[in-house]
Specification:
Organism: Latilactobacillus curvatus (Lactobacillus curvatus)
Order of helices and strands: HEEEEEEEEEEEEEEEEEEEEEEEEEE
Number of helices: 1
Strand content: 35-45%
InterPro entries: MucBP_dom
Radius of gyration: 51 Å
CATH class of the largest domain: Mainly Beta
Structural class: mainly beta
Protein name: MucBP domain-containing protein
Keywords: Repeat
CATH topology of the largest domain: SH3 type barrels
Pfam family, one: MucBP
Length: 363
């Protein structure tokens, strides 16, 4: 072999690349161009530990503890006032949150803020808002002495068991003739009625006098009510005798007498203890033959009391009257009220009998 052949053989020889180890877990390789830094060698040879081809890395396992969170619950009314102490629930994150749906007397659940169905990752708060349960209304009736409505009925509303107070019309307190006993009270589950009866003439009413029969000494005008503006076309003759059921006195001192179907304010008359034209027992209020028409009907189911000790009942308005002596303040139930075309107002009782509305006081 000459020199040229020896050089060619040296140039062709290259060291073989080492084969990669099987099942190797080396994640990062070193670039061939990057210089390899060798650690300083010890004078003593280190033993070589053979690498097993079946070796696998050991995975570290950590035990995790379940996490918990708390939920704070507030039960508030519509003014944000607590209805009970705050409630706190604790549970594992992600588990079902069973919210206590509490009930409070007189309230209903109206709104919920931040509602959760599971325990959340972080502690949280839930607000439950309750509103008062509305009660049945209180109807306030403002009526004249005949029971006619002066204005439309007023309605008071409020929460169950809440206090209420009904008031007379503005500027009408001095003209109130009668007020029902339940002017103040509490709302309940049943509708309540409050009655204010007004006397625009500011009359002072009283029962019939001790001498309840009046003999007219001159022809006398009649009125639908104790007011000069309520004059009717009927005129009572001289020496007619009538039974008085109640009286009214105006601030001027003028005296009015209620004859059951009309009012009179005579200037010349004479009172009698008994009927001068017959016995008291057989006395009947004069029978009317008036043919009337009903222009208004109001169904009712209200309790009332009779104002006088003597009351005339009718089989129908102006038909077949009968007079009775009764116990003062006798209670009756009014079934309906009708208004006739002569503007007279009649009440039918539950018994079927009729009488003039002015003889009753509604409670």
């Amino acid at each position: 072999m000459n020199l040229i052949n020896l050089l060619q053989s040296l140039l062709k020889w290259r060291p073989k690349k080492a084969a990669p180890l099987p099942n190797s877990h080396v994640r990062q390789t070193v670039s061939e161009q990057e210089p390899i830094r060798q650690a300083p060698q010890s004078s003593q040879k280190q033993p070589v530990v053979p690498v097993s081809q079946d070796a696998t890395p050991l995975l570290a396992t950590m035990s995790t503890q379940p996490r918990h969170s708390t939920v704070t619950i507030h039960y508030l009314n519509h003014h944000r006032v607590p209805l009970r102490p705050t409630m706190t629930l604790t549970g594992e994150v992600g588990t079902v949150l069973n919210l206590p749906w509490l009930k409070f007397a007189g309230y209903y659940l109206a709104a919920i803020t931040n509602l959760k169905q599971q325990f959340p990752e972080e502690n949280t708060t839930i607000w439950l808002f309750y509103k008062p349960q509305l009660a049945a209304p209180v109807m306030v009736l403002h009526q004249n002495l005949e029971g006619g409505l002066l204005i439309k009925p007023q309605f008071l509303s409020g929460a169950l068991n809440e206090h209420y107070q009904a008031n007379p019309l503005e500027g009408g307190a001095n003209f109130v003739h009668h007020t029902s006993a339940n002017q103040t009270g509490r709302f309940t589950t049943k509708t309540q009625f409050v009655h204010f009866k007004y006397d625009p003439l500011n009359l002072k009413h009283s029962d019939a006098p001790e001498q309840p029969f009046i003999e007219l000494l001159e022809p006398t005008d009649t009125y639908q009510q104790p007011s000069e503006e309520a004059l009717t076309a009927a005129r009572l003759p001289k020496h007619a005798v009538w039974k008085i059921y109640s009286c009214a006195t105006a601030p001027s001192g003028k005296q009015w007498f209620n004859l059951g179907s009309s009012w009179i304010t005579p200037t010349r008359y004479q009172l009698h203890a008994t009927n001068p034209k017959g016995s008291d027992e057989s006395y009947q209020v004069p029978k009317f033959t008036y043919h009337y028409a009903v222009i208004e009907t109001t169904p009712l189911n209200l309790s009332a009391s009779l104002n006088n000790n003597t009351v005339t009942f009718w089989q129908a308005p102006y038909d077949q009257p009968t007079t009775y002596q009764i116990v003062p303040k006798t209670r009756v139930v009014v079934k309906q009220v009708v208004v006739l075309d002569n503007q007279s107002r009649w009440c039918q009782l539950k018994t079927g009998q009729w009488l003039m509305e002015g003889l009753l006081t509604f409670d």
